[in-house]
Specification:
Layout (H helix, E strand, L loop, with lengths): L4 H4 L4 E6 L6 H13 L4 E4 L4 H4 L9 H12 L3 E5 L7 H6 L26 H18 L5 E5 L11 H15 L2 H8 L26 H29 L5 E2 L1 E2 L8 H6 L5 E3 L7 H19 L3 E5 L18 H11 L2 E6 L25 H20 L8 E4 L2 H7 L11 H14 L4 E4 L10 E4 L7 H12 L3 E5 L18 H7 L1 E9 L5 E4 L2 E4 L1 E7 L5 E4 L9 E6 L2 E4 L2 E2 L1 H14 L13 E6 L2 E6 L5 E11 L4 E9 L4 E5 L1
Parallel strand pairs: 1-2, 1-9, 2-3, 3-4, 4-5, 6-7, 7-8, 8-9, 10-11, 10-12, 12-13, 13-20
Antiparallel strand pairs: 14-17, 15-16, 16-21, 18-19, 19-20, 22-23, 23-26, 24-25, 24-26
Helix pairs in contact: 6-9, 11-12, 11-15, 12-13, 15-18
This protein binds alpha-D-galactopyranose.
């Protein structure tokens, strides 16, 4: 199978989405001049070009794209060619209204924006396949083509009639009989028993709470239907160019796709990442989580498909990236395994919904600070990218994450809406990041053999196979730390006996879990040495615990907040950030896992990739960092010994 290496060929890719259909052809020539100046070596073309390529049903206009591909090739710029299927032309919706998706209230999502396609529509799929086929046939042999980009940020759900029919087919394939479905969905509750497949609906608007198992299956179905759309187009382009890799760009930690499943179907895993530049340290932390997850999905180098060189336009208040931050965050992605640093988009649009979203070339043009910083970064990546590309990141901790657990947990009718899966993932990953412990992610059924420390912030739903996997991991000598509300439900979202699966209770030394005690806004709970937030639990522990930290004060006084039996830890609250960091650092040390560097100040990040050591200063004040031994700093070419100085938002790439 082709991989990212087939496109990077030993370099780090640098470039972005390029939407030349928004500009006259004179501007294209200016674009390639500036691209060369900025050392851009790859652009993604055609993401939203459907109406331009197919102005009327079945008509093709490839002339402009022929000229553009030739122009880019003449200037040595590779093309990641996108199928344009995320934004169908207006004629498709007008001619075939059934191609438009409906939300849970039955409202149509009309054209005039983007992503207005129903994943279930046979007509949409037919038109998407046809344009993909012709695009692939036409450019398969073009020398500029280096990779395929299918659709864009697959994300739409559909609750319409055609989706309902496909949902029934999907359920039939899964359950076989309505009896099996009734059992799995618990339809004895509230008179929901189904006698005929035709009675079953997508998770549409209801008067009061929906059946959670139905919602869970509808989320699974939606991810699977979008994946079918992806694989259908992927298979078409693969037939024409079996030697070229195929990707589709994920949104960061996006709810709607089981990205573990999806990643298996891609040659290259790519992601779009837009941390908030108003908070450089918080943004770096958020970015690190997504980068670690993406690298783990890719099982190696991955592609930063989109980031913003300056402001985005979809937060309440949108700041530019302050001086130096674009460079720093780009190097952070490379440090954490990216072999491509790309942006949305090359040239900032003058019209349309994203005219205030930055581009690599902003409204200020060539002389603008944003472009000048892009230019400097491009030169650096070109100079030392070859030393980095293809290397593996060293990560000694593994965090478990699963979309099905998230989908099951994120529903109405739960005990607290404050303890959501992404918040917990962020809190635990932050603790690791601040302890300078690099983390990979894994699925709870992945082979964990040889991993030294496995951390489960929360997995509300765990299959039997996953529970057995965790137990076998601990029995095999691994250290496991689990947060609260883990192992509560089985794969049908049925609460397990005793509230937490008996095998896990046995593992952690929980004799009885009497009650869950979620905490309200501003409420905390005392524990020996720290305060717990979000959640607490009334646990009766087994007599043979090896260690416990107790609740202090309040209803739970004297009951265990943290339990350890052997190498298995259970944390029944969310310790405040410093306490969680200290706890994880202690557990990691016990498991033989050391921080990347000792004595690093907060706000400084260190990551090892191959033999290289990246040190990144996320603060605005210069710092001096101890790095034992002699190194060469590759960005400056200067030899350093035992310490390195980093300016505001500074980066050092050290080779021993
Ligand atoms: C996403 C999309 C782009 C653009 C950016 C704006 O990443 O893929 O087309 O809309 O968001 O941030």
């Amino acid at each position: 199978m082709p991989s990212l290496d087939d496109t990077t060929r030993g370099r780090v890719l640098f470039g972005g989405d390029y939407n030349p259909e928004q500009w006259p052809e004179e501007t294209w020539r200016e674009d390639v001049r500036l691209m060369r100046d900025a050392r851009v070596n790859s652009v993604t073309v055609g993401v939203f070009s459907w109406a331009r390529l197919e102005p009327r049903p079945g008509v093709r206009d490839f002339g402009w794209l022929d000229r553009l591909m030739d122009l880019l090739h003449e200037h040595g710029i590779g093309v990641v060619l996108a199928t344009p299927t995320s934004a169908p032309p207006p004629w498709l919706g007008r001619l075939h209204p059934e191609t438009l998706p409906r939300d849970a209230d039955g409202r149509v999502e009309w054209w005039g924006g983007r992503q207005h396609f129903s994943h279930s529509s046979a007509v949409y799929r037919r038109y998407a396949a046809a344009i993909t086929e012709d695009l692939a046939a036409r450019y398969a042999a073009h020398p500029a083509l280096t990779m395929w980009h299918i659709n864009n940020e697959y994300c739409t759900a559909d609750h319409g009639d055609e989706a309902a029919a496909r949902f029934r087919g999907w359920l039939r394939a899964k359950y076989g009989t309505t009896d099996a479905l009734n059992t799995a969905w618990g339809t004895a509750f509230w008179s929901q028993r189904y006698d005929d497949w035709g009675e079953i609906l997508p998770a549409r608007h209801t008067h009061y709470l929906k059946n959670p198992a139905q919602v869970l299956d509808f989320r699974r179905f939606t991810s699977d239907m979008l994946l079918e759309c992806f694989t259908a187009e992927r298979d078409i382009v693969r037939r024409h160019t079996p030697h070229l890799p195929v990707t589709t760009n994920f949104m960061p930690l996006f709810f709607g796709q089981d990205a573990w499943r999806w990643a298996e179907e891609e040659d290259v895993v790519s992601v779009d990442l837009y941390p908030d530049p108003r908070d450089p340290v918080g943004g770096a932390r958020d970015g690190a989580l997504v980068q670690d997850l993406t690298r783990s999905q890719a099982r190696g180098p991955w592609m930063l498909m989109e980031q913003a060189a300056g402001a985005v336009n979809w937060r309440g208040v949108n700041h530019p990236r302050p001086r130096g931050l674009n460079r720093l965050w780009s190097w952070q992605a490379v440090a954490r395994g990216a072999d491509a640093v790309c942006y949305f988009q090359w040239r900032q649009s003058r019209q349309g919904a994203e005219k205030f979203h930055s581009g690599m070339v902003g409204h200020a043009g060539e002389r603008g600070r944003t472009f000048q910083e892009v230019r400097r970064l491009g030169a650096e990546l070109e100079r030392i990218g070859g030393e980095v590309a293809g290397r593996q990141v060293t990560a000694d901790v593994t965090v478990l994450h699963d979309w099905h657990a998230w989908w099951a947990a994120e529903q109405d009718g739960r005990l607290s809406s404050r303890a959501g899966h992404p918040n917990l993932l962020a809190a635990w990953h932050r603790a690791l990041w601040e302890a300078h412990l690099t983390a990979d992610f894994a699925h709870p059924e992945h082979d964990l053999t040889g991993r030294r420390l496995v951390v489960v912030p929360q997995l509300y739903l765990l299959t039997d196979a996953a529970i057995d996997n965790l137990r076998a991991y601990v029995e095999g000598g691994g250290t496991l730390v689990c947060g609260f509300l883990t192992g509560v439900a089985d794969e049908d979202d049925r609460v397990r006996p005793g509230g937490v699966d008996p095998r896990l209770r046995e593992l952690f030394g929980i004799r009885v879990l009497h009650e869950w005690w979620p905490l309200g806004e501003g409420e905390t709970v005392g524990c020996d040495g720290f305060r717990g937030t979000l959640w607490s639990e009334e646990i009766e522990a087994a007599d043979d615990l090896d260690e416990r930290i107790d609740y202090r004060g309040g209803e739970l006084d004297g009951l265990p907040a943290v339990l350890r039996r052997g190498r298995a830890w259970y944390v029944s609250t969310l310790p405040e950030p410093d306490a969680l960091r200290a706890l994880l650092a202690r557990i990691a040390a016990g498991a033989g896992v050391r921080p990347v560097l000792d004595g690093l100040p907060q706000g400084v990040e260190a990551v090892r990739r191959g033999e290289l050591l990246f040190v990144l200063n996320h603060g605005r004040e210069p710092v001096t960092v101890a790095v034992p031994g002699p190194h060469r700093e590759l960005l400056t070419g200067v030899a350093v010994r035992d310490e390195v100085r980093l300016e505001r938002f500074g980066v050092a790439v050290l080779r021993p």
